[in-house]
């Protein structure tokens, strides 16, 4: 299982890659493996400002539907349009082509509450 060191992680299994005052958000390899084959991604919050731990969308897998939670507060700037026709990108490349949203980070101090790769690995028991 892959836990990239350059990312921060939420206890809800989202990852965030910060690039200045913007960030890319997705779900972890662990999360997609637990969900199984992802068949649909629903994010209708583009242009909205969403608070930390609030729902910004959902992923539907063969087994279940799971809410996507913001790891930090921010405005949703972009949704990965490739997921509309290819939601399985999350299963195939969760840290690359399977990213879900890009955000403008509202409160950079919230990043300090997220987990490092090592702490997230301990959380998952992997």
Task: Give a description of the structure.
This protein has helices at 29-35, 82-85, 89-92, 117-124; strands at 8-9, 14-19, 22-27, 38-42, 49-50, 55-61, 65-69, 74-79, 101-105. With 126 residues, the protein is an alpha+beta fold. β1 (8-9) and β2 form a beta hairpin. It contains 4 helices and 9 strands; from the N terminus they run βββαβββββααβα. The longest helix is centred in the last third of the chain and has 8 residues, at 117-124. It starts with 7 loop residues before the first strand and ends with a helix. Helices cover 18% and strands 35% of the residues. It is globular.
Record the strand order, biggest sheet.
Answer: 1-2-3-9-8-5
Which CATH class?
Mainly Beta
CATH topology: OB fold (Dihydrolipoamide Acetyltransferase, E2P)
Structure annotation, total helices = 4
Gap from first CA to last CA: 7 Å
What would CATH call the architecture?
Beta Barrel
